[in-house]
Amino acid sequence: MKPAPFKYHAPQSLTELVDLMAELEDAKILAGGQSLMPMMNMRFVAPDDVVDINGVSELSFIERANGSLRIGAMTRQKDLLASPEVKDAAPVMREALCHVGHLQTRNRGTIGGSLCHLDPSAELPAIASLYGATLTVAGREGQREVPMEEWVLAYMMPSIAPEEVLVSLSLPVWLAGHGYAYTEFARRHGDFAITGVGALVELSEGVITKAALTVAGADVKPTRLTDVEQSLAGQPANEETFKAAGAEARKIDAMSDTYVSAAYRQRLADTLVQRALATAADRAVGGE
Amino acid sequence: MGVRQTGAEVQRGEDQALLTGRGQYVDDLKLLGMLHGAYLRSPHAHAVIKSIDTSAAESLPGVHAVFTYRDLEEPVNGRQVQPYPNPLIAQDITQYPLAKDEVCYVGEAVAFVVADTRHIAEDALPLIQVDYETLPPIVRLREAMDDDAPRAHKDSPDNLIAQLNITYGDVEPTFAKADHVFKAEFLQHRGGCHAMEGRGVVAQYDAFSDEFTIWSATQCPYLVRRCLATQFDLPESRIRVIAPDVGGGFGPKAGFYVEEIITPWAARKLGRPIKWIEDRKEHFTTTNTQRDTWWELEVAATSKGRIEAIRGRLVNDNGAYVPYGILLPFTMMASFPGPYKILALDLTQDVVFTNTVSNSPVRGAGRPNAAYAIERMIELVSRKLGIDTAEVRRRNFVEKTDFPYQTGLIHFNGRAMTYDSGDYHSLLEKALELADYDGFTARQEEARKDGRYLGIGVSSCVEDTGMGPYEGVTIRVDPKGKIYVSSGAASQGQGHKTVLRQIIADELGVGLDDIHVDIGDTGKFPQGVGTIGSRVGVNIGTAAFGAAAEIREKALALAAEILETDIGNLVFEDGLIRDKGRSNITISLGEIALKLAPMAGAVVPAGHTASLEATSFDASKGPPHASGTNVCELEVDIGTGEVKLLNYCVAHDCGKKINPLIVEGQIVGGVVHGIGNALFEEMIYDDSGQPQNVNYGEYLLPLATEMPPINIVHQETPSPLNPLGLKGAGEGGTIPAANAVIAAIENALRDFDVTIDRYPVTPEYLCNLIDANQT
Amino acid sequence: MADTREITLTVNGKSYTETVETRFNLADILREKLNLTGTHVGCEHGACGACTVLVDGEAVRSCLMLGVQANGKEITTIEGLADGDQLNPLQAAFRKHHGLQCGFCTPGFLTTLTAYLQDNPDPSEEEIREAVSGNICRCTGYQGIVAAALDAAAQMRAR
């Protein structure tokens, strides 16, 4: 399982990278390598050019400013996991990261890589969806912003042109004391989840004032349950409410594959939405 | 006085090298001028090859040669040798070393590229133009015997490899007057090998000495040598097969593979050493596995839960070829009764072809299949009659006064299957106590209050081990008193070298570090058999004991003369032979060795033979039978179908243990393998015979995070069949594991009246069963 | 013509400068170019962990990293763990608790645990199992490995 030959490039700046991507016709970006390298080793992909962006250090940052958390695309998953800013501003991301791969993969894997690879059950795209994050993409013409709802074009296909590069994402920080949970079901620790659910809630005197819910792994892209979110607002944070939300979640579009049916994914969405909401409500300040 | 090594938890001598990165696995070998090979493999489950054009591949820079079937001469170009011929095999079809005109499974070897690097060899593969005409494949086990089923081999009359039958006792009359007759049908699936090291071959042909030297990641170097001798029509003496450090075997590395033919053949053809290392994708598609078996069984039982007779049939998928005879199907049936007294039995097995990779034994070699089946009968009786599953076992076990116990069946060695010793009742009690079985009901009820579903499952087995004919050992003492040991036994992690050193240290009164052991090399030991079926420890232990006894006798005879004392006064201690009565009177083992192997002009003492050495092929007089009872406690999450293993207890009896550390390692590793079968491992094919999950993201091996604590209690019923009382320990953890897990799941989901009819069990499968029974 | 680069890397404290083909991964370089065959290749798709080495102190799957990406880095492999012939506490614990059988996965477990215990000197059993969930062992069933890791952690804390 050795890769086909390629020409290797290692740009050291974003400008150099963007220029290179504009020139090359059949190039793949090598970030963490945890998804690309297996595919190359198996010869599922055989690009003429491999562009190693590990030297573009300006793409690696975590910044909190103006109510947002901005993260550079080359920020490693292990750095996100260890980051006090992430822990404080977006604790649900930290919880999700505990499920991402293994020690070794997180040491190399990047948030940008995950957002561009777009495995349907991947946790970081789910988090981006949960927050309604904004992604910044750079090309020869400059930078443009893409809301997460528009990011997933199709199965494992981001809305990015071959010569463009994902630079960063930005997510709005929720109020201190918000409740959060990321829960997923995978066959083994670190496996791609069959289905995962991210939840954010704000409570006031035991009543849900704001909620965000995303299901990962059911469909080709993370599914924001906007209808359920709306119906949760004003509801008491109790088992009955969570059960109702779960029953609604069960109706989402889901895929079938060799291993798992759509119906089972929907069943999991139901169970996990209930559990995620319960945990999030438990953690929120402003419960009864 | 030295510490007794046999029976002690001696740390392995093998570990120093392995822990410091100085193991020597086949891929670590580098020979001068060595080239690298890659096999082009069939992308189709069934097809005819119309033509092959290798010209583009041959012109790729760095490629030295591309070989196909037409390049092979006789007799190499014959179908690969059948290592285990048997008249019961109706269609003994083995693979051609490279496909001749028909390919019968995805992965079958079609061409061999030799290049400067593996990278370049892989670059050449897609350049080989093969014109295939696809044929309909037979993929599903249960369709293989249909009249209109596609034939796995296009010119075959049908897909039947062999039909086997075992029968004894008055089956029909017993069923006719039984209190109760219960039925069950179920599917079992065992999965693949997945040693962390795949297969691999480094081959060298020395034209000067007309000798092949072949390193292969094999469990059976002597089997490979013998088969190659036939395949190449060469004397065995011209073929040396070496098993270097091997990274796990588990059964599939015990066979004979086409790469072991072609790689050496090409090395001779090109006059260069060649290395071929199986990559993981090849491991999934070309290394033998053990997949589906379908059972339909009926059990006749008394109202008290005593099983009187069993009858039924099974269909067993053997894959595309018959590379390992019918050893696996045979063993599956021969071990069926397990630890139970089944007085009447009739089973028929159809062994069938499908267009998938061939099946041969995977850890347990059919015994896990049989154990699961008989345990299903126990569970059935238990559930239908409302008798606790442990109690049903007690009422049906062979009694400890019954030994030696003949089951009524024949062992693979042709003799009556005879259990030598054991105490299954006591073993059961030990397991139940260790698992706090009596306290379980309370635990289950407590958990139910929190909406949690706990379950417990019991499973018992017997394992015939130590199969003959032998696994010989040579011991030789040198003039410094250092001991050289050689054996054909090959090791893939079982610590055979350490085991040999322990026994010999005790018998000859020397230190562990004074003993050097070579194993697994046909050039260093004349005859051998192979590491399969938990047979090596028993047989090398017996042979080492025998060889050491000969050395003792020889050394004592000369020492008594020299020291002018009676043999009865002499003891072996710290490398010396000492007169018990006069403790300062000693002679070293080395001095004795020197006297028996002097240089030119000297004389070997009269009445004594040269060289202080002995070779013994002493073996266990028959297969010793190990036994075990496993108890598994788990929790089922009815929201997701997830099974969480909480606690696993094993009561294990492998007779006398040479090294308890090694025994425990085998048990724990074996249990995890069995858990993998029950919950995780499944090879999935689509309808065209394409394997679907050929990577470790989608084919699930057990990881550390999902494994429960595995607690072990030992029992020792020594075997009367060999002087050290040994029984094998390599597979006893795996054999009963599946039912322990499956029965525990059924127990957890009792409220939903769940009966599981297949394994591995997936969470979705459980959710469907739960949902179907929700009231 | 093969695409090559010259790289300089430090492995187990020793500096190497080699011209390597860019498509060779780090495991290939260690094993083929530098003759350090202690790092093993088990799957080549980032699942089994046998190829794990330390890159600037972090556990990394060397089959998923190009050799050229190791330029300028400090690599530690299994060959660099012991002090001459003296096993370090982790290695000694593996031997004591029978945490290896065939030894093929062992290099990956040792490097992974070396990095992990450095950052987490007092782990629970559950944490150790999680830490090695990216390493597959087919022989031991993991129990001996976990026991060894707990013992080694205790030994190292005591120092």
CATH superfamily of the largest domain in chain C: Beta-grasp domain
CATH superfamily of the largest domain in chain B: Aldehyde oxidase/xanthine dehydrogenase, molybdopterin binding domain
The average pLDDT of chain B is 97
Structural classification of chain C: alpha+beta
Mean pLDDT, all residues of chain C: 97
Output the number of helix runs of chain B: 18
Q: Sheet with the most strands of chain C?
A: 5 strands, mixed
Oligomeric organization of the protein chains: heterotrimer
Side-by-side strand order of the widest sheet of chain B: 3-5-1-12-9-10-11
How much of the polypeptide of chain B forms β-strand, as a percent range?
A: 15-25%
Assign the structural class of chain B, choosing from mainly alpha, mainly beta, alpha/beta, alpha+beta, or little secondary structure. Answer: alpha+beta
Under CATH, the topology of the largest domain in chain B can be stated as: Aldehyde Oxidoreductase, domain 4
Low-confidence stretches of chain C: none
Strand count, sense and barrel status of the largest sheet of chain B are:
7 strands, mixed
| Gap between N and C termini of chain C | 54 Å
Beta-strand residue fraction of chain C:
15-25%
CATH class of the largest domain in chain B: Alpha Beta
In short:
Chain A has 288 residues and is an alpha+beta fold. Helix content of chain A is 34%, strand content 26%.
Describe the structure.
The complex is a heterotrimer of chains A (288), B (775) and C (159). By secondary structure, chain A is α+β, with helices and mostly antiparallel strands. Chain A is 34% helix and 26% strand. Helices cover 26% and strands 25% of the residues of chain B. Chain B is globular, with a radius of gyration of 28 Å. Chain C has 159 residues and is α+β, with helices and mostly antiparallel strands. Chain C folds into two domains: 4-80, Ubiquitin-like (UB roll), CATH 3.10.20; 89-158, DNA polymerase, domain 1 (Orthogonal Bundle). Chain C has five helices and five strands. A five-stranded mixed beta sheet of chain C has the order 2-1-5-3-4, sandwiched between helices. The longest helix of chain C is centred in the last third of the chain and has 16 residues, at 143-158. The N and C termini of chain C lie far apart (54 Å). In chain C, 64% of the residues are buried. At the B-C interface, helix 1 and helix 16 of B face helix 2, helix 3, helix 4 and helix 5 of C.
